[in-house]
Amino acid sequence: MSMECAQLPLAGITVVDLTRVLSGPYCTMMLADMGARVIKIENPDGGDDSRQVGPFVDGESAYFASINRNKESIALDLKDAGDRQVLERMLATADVLVENFRAGVMEKLGFTWEDLHARYPRLVYASISGFGQTGPYRARPAYDMVVQAMGGLMSVTGEAGGNPARVGVSIGDIGAGLYATIGIQSALLKRVQTGLGERVDISMLDCQVALLENPIARYSATGGVPQPLGTRHPSITPFDMFATQDGFIVIAVGNDALFGKLCDALGRSEWAQEDRFATVPARNEHHVALKACLESRLADATTAEWEAILEAAGVPHGPMNTVPQLVSNPHVRARGMILEIGIGDGKALQVAGNPVKFGSTEALSGVRNPPSLDQDRDRLLAEFGG
Amino acid sequence: MSMECAQLPLAGITVVDLTRVLSGPYCTMMLADMGARVIKIENPDGGDDSRQVGPFVDGESAYFASINRNKESIALDLKDAGDRQVLERMLATADVLVENFRAGVMEKLGFTWEDLHARYPRLVYASISGFGQTGPYRARPAYDMVVQAMGGLMSVTGEAGGNPARVGVSIGDIGAGLYATIGIQSALLKRVQTGLGERVDISMLDCQVALLENPIARYSATGGVPQPLGTRHPSITPFDMFATQDGFIVIAVGNDALFGKLCDALGRSEWAQEDRFATVPARNEHHVALKACLESRLADATTAEWEAILEAAGVPHGPMNTVPQLVSNPHVRARGMILEIGIGDGKALQVAGNPVKFGSTEALSGVRNPPSLDQDRDRLLAEFGG
């Protein structure tokens, strides 16, 4: 493998990162994991808010550590003239500026798109905010929980007939971080053609709407209000979690041929011949009866026994893993999805790896630890201090 | 605005799309929404499986329509010599090939990365599969439900103390589609430097691990097994849904200053002075008591009344919207997040828009309807038929 091929794809891209907490830092972690240089600008008064969010290891935030690897840190006061000059010198050579202040804050600080674009025409300027740079709610603050609720995701998550539930991860923030990464990369690709940077405007609420694509289309098609369904798929059956003799197994059968294989594997081939189970629409209509049939048979063996039988039969299935089971899973380990980074007094913290795998680059084995606040000050001032 | 600036960022990029159902089509919808030309190759025997998934409008699948706008369609039999020649001629000029067959299927069809890379060195070759192209589970089939369960997301979603719940959208598929989009764009950016295409290998399970970043770090830091928490945030309090006089409101307070503003807005400034509520760790420890305090006061007014009070106070909050409330929300409408496309016998279907907004391009007003199976055959054969 040549050195060139082994280089990470975003090598050579420099990102000036004004983001805090989660949505922005998740975006810039993705960019850093793929080879971009990310210079994290933190406020001198404690830095990124998430440094104060637990749990802590020897006083260091695991929340912060999980999403800030591979970044440099410098503390700058964006209201101080000297510090602003340092930032400006960074922007003069950077490819991307990312910020996730509330809409309007960058303008108050004097960093408008119009002005920065005039001075640094190649700079991509990406903003992530709760509601975007336009629209009636643009000045409102937001957090993950707010956009999960306003965006409808909570209204379709949880037990059937029960209370709405929050998704157990901050998909309001992480979703915005992913769409922001896509927007930034699109703008960089466009710049190859035009030579000009672009304004990217990501609204966390917009991103929730985008994730709701199927409930929105279902509502529009039928007029029915999408509800929480527990573990069942809204329009494909059987696509659910089922009790076995000793636990739970998910079975995901998306077409009639697979349903036949499932019935054969269970020793109940006759079910596939019944009119009420013969097609996807029929199985959707009779999902309660079908679940009862399936669980009556699944109770005869353990999850591990059914896993072996369904694997041999080629029927999509899987156990429900807890986080400890996930972290120790041999496939997850083989894919390099659990990284260890240093935290606190020489301890190791396990964090999720980068799922964007490239055939010609090795797993990111040389991961750099999350920065302490202002750790790269001297080197960065030597480079950008004027 | 010049014509050049108004062009969508991926204009000029051609994607040959072998994907079916959701993860791959979501990825290629993103690429198409941002201006790429997407040629959807469907099997002649009914096309994309999701054309058979309900609900239907005049016999057309709303599931399919929701994620296949802006694409062209041609039916090709990948085992037929003539049809394979058409595909090869497309690949000779395309920038990206995307497929989401089970790992190994493309190799059986004779389309290996090594071979295609040798013949079309600039082609980016992206695969989305349940478990990736490497690792012990690589040959297993998977669906959204399977990776949500195996990936730990179900184990942290649902009511506190209750059963695990599936996220109410197919985040196993959509997550993979988003990371695949990021991988493809990274590879296109690298190609600008190297002139060579890249192999992108996306595993749906890997993507779930990536979304679990916070539960994994919390488990590693504390040893505690992350559990479903209903609507509460795991490490920030108050960050939850609360009952009001007539419904629910989400309040999301991430730091002590905001907590002070919340207490002032509720007319209960003294709460912020109590030791048990003074810091994030203290509020986390006493979250049950704090929720009781807050709901005792929130019961005095309606959700709408509290919204007005909290908005004036600058405290992040929001109502819990159902899908109908979301679709009719004035801010969501103002952001162009609800598109109408044609379906069936001249009917309109509302679908989610693209959340990646660019400052210099208008909202994608000229959205093209999802294709009927093979609708672009004649034109595509004229272009690629040899």
UniProtKB/TrEMBL annotation, chains A, B:
<protein>
    <submittedName>
        <fullName>Acetyl-CoA:oxalate CoA-transferase</fullName>
        <ecNumber>2.8.3.19</ecNumber>
    </submittedName>
</protein>
<dbReference type="InterPro" id="IPR044855">
    <property type="entry name" value="CoA-Trfase_III_dom3_sf"/>
</dbReference>
<keyword id="KW-0808">Transferase</keyword>
<dbReference type="InterPro" id="IPR023606">
    <property type="entry name" value="CoA-Trfase_III_dom_1_sf"/>
</dbReference>
<dbReference type="GO" id="GO:0016740">
    <property type="term" value="F:transferase activity"/>
</dbReference>
<dbReference type="InterPro" id="IPR050483">
    <property type="entry name" value="CoA-transferase_III_domain"/>
</dbReference>
<dbReference type="InterPro" id="IPR003673">
    <property type="entry name" value="CoA-Trfase_fam_III"/>
</dbReference>
<dbReference type="Pfam" id="PF02515">
    <property type="entry name" value="CoA_transf_3"/>
</dbReference>
